[in-house]
Amino acid sequence: MKRFTIVACTVIALMFAFSVYTFASVDKTVNINTASIKELSSLKRIGEKVSQRIVDYRESVGPFEKPEDIKKVKGISDKIFELNKERIVIKDGAVEKKF
User: Fold this and answer.
1) For residue 67, which of 95, 36, 99, 42 has the smallest C-alpha distance?
2) Which InterPro entries does the entry link to (predicted)?
3) Domain containing 55: what range?
């Protein structure tokens, strides 16, 4: 019985730790002009390949001027933008531009 209690407590603690991490990353804004591939991948329905395209786009074209400019990147549809528009920001110095 003691062993079961220890295992159960460990499982509950791990579930709590992962859920806190998941919820914390969902609310965090992402500056698409400076975000890493990992940070960009935290956006809904954006994986590593599309994240790499975003980085490549901003390196070749320059910084995004407004959040909806991310739709110029192959793989970012209107629907994907709508899913993420509350989290996508453009920070220019001390000024943060949000959609």
Assistant:
1) 99
2) Competence_ComEA_HhH, Endo/Exo/Phosphatase_dom_1, Hlx-hairpin-Hlx_DNA-bd_motif, RuvA_2-like
3) 29-98
